[in-house]
Amino acid sequence: MTVTYNPSDPNYFVPSDLRAEMTRVFDLCHGCRLCLHLCPSFPTLFDAIDSHDGDVGRLTNAEADQVVDECYQCKLCYNKCPYVPPHEWELDFPRLMLRAKTVAKSTRREGVAQRLSDEVLGRTDLVGVASVTFSSLANRLLDTNSTVSRTAMEKTIGIASQRLLPPYAKMRFSTWFSRRGRPFVRNRQSAVAVFPTCFIEYMDPEIGKATVAVYEHNGVSCSVPTNAKCCGAPWLHGGDVEKFKKVAEKNVEVLAAEVGAGRSIVVAQPTCAYVIKKDYPLYLGTEQAAKVAEATFDTSEYLMKMYRQDKDSLARDFSGEIPENITYHAPCHLQAQNIGFKSRDLMKLTGAKISLVTKCSGIDGTWGYRAKNYQLAKRVAQNLAKAIDAAPRGELVGDCHLANYSITEETKRGVSHPMMVMARAYGLDINT
């Protein structure tokens, strides 16, 4: 048995070694049960062990695999667990689940539909370029009312026909950025590179525009790194380590050039920020990846770092629209970074009253998109919807593009990104 979460370890891919490690970890989790209510994996695990009179060693492979399938990589159990490294038990449940998915991928234990789904969801840039080019057609086909196309999509690539999907934009964010005139940044304090993420690049450039406008208003000049691609999270969460590492290597090379030029990296999507900060250094193991990770920040995290260092560094000229009440959803992959609730703190500076909601959306990467997980994901999201309904009525705000659409599906209400809220509060025209 090898306690390892690093794919460079030769035992990482050995199925028998993995099973032994799963037995060890499952036994510890069964004795603790602190994470019982976090996700479907833990009730499934505990019920299975209890059915064997508490003997973890009697779990069948099918029972263990169900636990793996129901883990959607929210990573909150890592935050909650008292036995994570450097504890002597070295328990990291999310990375053990990733290891299990990687071994399943490497031993071809997945079905054809699963592999096809992974390929489509992993090639976000290829799909994104095509969908922006033909956005009118793409958006009609993706609409949940387009039952024929959505049913066909579910049967072929496994995307739930009922799942509300983000529409594609008519122009990519990087295209808009390259066409805008180079602005004069007053009282320049620093410089950042905006990592666009596939969501902002292809689906919601307005978030990227708002980020640039807010940063420049606060004396931070912005660039957009050319040749940056999707962070690779769909490959990683699907267990395809080799494809993930190829994407990571290319992105690290691009982002390292920005860091070398004196710019920090800012990311407006929590999953992507987590991958760059946590997964790139682990899976690549290079000094360059570590330097990029160290220089990477969530968009609100970077601005609050400026504010913490000098309270006069952030503009307080809020002459625009400020909601009286904001219900702010802190997504799982932002909580997993252990940086605090920086978007909440940033929006508080406007004078708005903030209600914090920390429940999971049941999406977590692409897990909640898949038809086989749809009903489980809906059960998870119901708790989030209840928490939102219990908060004072106001504007809904969240950092995660994926979670925001899950919220819209559950509540029938639109959700804004914190950078959009800040741009409106400053009264900025984000299209200039």
Describe this structure in words.
- This protein has helices spanning 15-32, 41-51, 61-69, 76-80, 93-106, 112-122, 124-133, 135-142, 147-157, 173-179, 197-203, 205-217, 233-237, 241-260, 270-284, 287-294, 299-309, 332-335, 342-348, 374-390, 401-411, 418-426, and strands at residues 190-195, 220-223, 264-267, 296-298, 325-329, 353-357, 395-398.
- By secondary structure, the protein is of the alpha/beta class.
- It has a four-stranded parallel beta sheet, sandwiched between helices.
- The protein is globular and about 65 Å long.
- It starts with 14 loop residues before the first helix and ends in a 6-residue tail after the last helix.
Topology, number of strands = 7
Counting helices, strands and paired strands, the structural category is alpha/beta
* DSSP helical segment count: 22
| Strand composition percent | 5-15%
Q: Give the rounded overall mean pLDDT.
A: 92
Poorly predicted tracts of residues:
none
Text of the CATH class of the domain at 316-426 = Alpha Beta
Looking at the structure, what is the overall shape?
Answer: globular
Report the biggest beta sheet as strand number plus sense, adding barrel if it closes. Answer: 4 strands, parallel
Strand order of the largest sheet: 2-1-3-4
The share of residues in helices is: 40-55%
- Write down the Rg: 22 Å
CATH topology descriptor of the domain at 316-426: Rossmann fold
CATH architecture of the domain at 316-426: 3-Layer(aba) Sandwich
